[in-house]
Write a structure and sequence with these properties.
mainly alpha
Length: 216
């Protein structure tokens, strides 16, 4: 019998979720809860893809400062075709705001690929093999592909280092299993469980010991 079978995970998650909400992140939870893959548009994919590319290897709080201005440089993610046709303008205006050639180029490359492939075909590829397909884009790798899939409304948890540590502590084989069990018990979706646990870990320095104490 694993450690997780002896713990009150539903109680712990409820405590953690209340903590996160009281810390001012209810809107973040509600945003994640509303995401549905069936409703994902080309604009949604462009925006979320760019967000994940920019966040790769950086703090979310840093990218948030630049993202609104960068969105303006990419026509508010209106369409891949519009970005592809004006890629020189997009690059030059974006690089003045966020001086990272590889990441700005990766966003443009993503837009060109979507324009060439067509969004309907892209969505088919996502349905068939989401993680593998997302990793074909620049700057979307082994962990960030899960991040993007989650932000597109797929029932996938991101193996972030915080969640990996928590799942290991609680005796789960992986983050997906941890979030799936809590989702079943709580009624929240897997991505919502993911974002609640992740946000808690960013807020609470001793998140591992604190979460474990809540399970008693």
């Amino acid at each position: 019998m694993g450690l997780n079978s002896c713990l009150n995970l539903e109680k712990a998650y409820s405590e953690v979720k209340t903590y996160v909400i009281n810390s001012g992140f209810q809107d973040e939870i509600e945003w994640q809860a509303k995401l549905c893959f069936d409703n994902v548009t080309e604009s949604t994919f462009l925006r979320e893809g760019a967000w994940v590319i920019l966040n790769s290897g950086m703090r979310e709080s840093v990218i948030r400062k630049y993202f609104q201005d960068l969105s303006f440089c990419f026509f508010e993610w209106e369409s891949a075709k519009k970005i592809a046709e004006a890629k020189k303008f997009c690059y030059e205006s974006a690089i003045d705001i966020f001086n990272n050639d590889r990441k700005i180029s990766a966003i443009i490359d993503m837009s060109v690929r979507i324009c060439d492939l067509g969004f309907n075909k892209l969505k088919e590829c996502l349905e068939q093999s989401p993680i593998e397909f997302l990793q074909t884009f620049q700057y979307i790798g082994a962990v960030t592909s899960y991040h993007l899939a989650k932000n597109l409304g797929l029932q996938i948890a991101k193996p972030d280092r915080h969640l990996v540590r928590l799942s290991d502590l609680l005796g789960f084989e992986n983050v997906q299993d941890l979030c799936s069990v809590i989702a079943k018990d709580s009624g929240d979706t897997i991505p919502v469980v993911d974002i609640v646990l992740w946000r808690f870990a960013t807020l609470e320095r001793d998140y591992l010991d604190t979460f474990l104490s809540y399970t008693v």
